[in-house]
Amino acid sequence: MTNISDAAKAVIRRNTDEVQGGGNWALFDELFDDKFLDHTPQPNCTPDKPGALGLYKKLRAAFPDFRAEIHWQRADGDVITTYKTYHGTHQGDFLGVAATGRKIRFETVDAMRVRNGKITEHWGVANLFSVLQQLGAWPAGPKA
Q1: 8-state DSSP, 42
Q2: pLDDT digits (tens, 9 = 90+) for 36-92
């Protein structure tokens, strides 16, 4: 029998692989609760379900091959924390930077609450500063 934490991990993996990585917007609608709340929304995004969908669509437009490599997941009841690295090729505007054709990668740590099979809350930190450096929009620091 699957416990709550394992079921919640599976929901997060489906979101990461099929929605973020595959652009399955119908599945997004199934996986996200209508009262979803993002406690750490990205700039110019609302902290609700339409805001999350808008962010995902912006990412897929900027990086059509956008995908994540999940390194690990940890559960605390119905809250799943995931450490992952996103990969993609910059083929559309992102954070005001026109397409460069460069390959990027950046790390993210997300915590998402899953209740009754739906994602209800999100907290996260993404290393977007490194993306700007990779795109040449911010000078790289000195090499160590």
Answers
A1: P
A2: 999 999 888 999 999 999 999 999 999 999 999 999 999 998 999 999 999 999 999
Does 105 fall in a domain? Answer: yes
What is the rounded distance in angstroms from the CA atom of residue 92 to the CA atom of residue 64? 8
Residue 116: inside a domain, yes or no?
yes
Q: CA-CA distance, 11 to 114, in Å (whole number)?
A: 8
Decide if 140 is inside a domain.
no
- CATH code for the domain of 82: 3.10.450.50
The sign of the dihedral angle between the CA atoms of 2, 26, 101, 140 is negative
- Asked, for residue 141, whether it belongs to a domain, the answer is no
Rounded to whole angstroms, the Cα distance separating 116 from 137 reads: 42
Total tally of structural domains belonging to the chain: 1
pTM of the model: 0.90
Q: What per-residue confidence (pLDDT) applies to 137?
A: 87
Domain that holds residue 66: 4-134
pLDDT of residue 1: 47
Confidence at residue 141, expressed as pLDDT on a 0 to 100 scale = 67
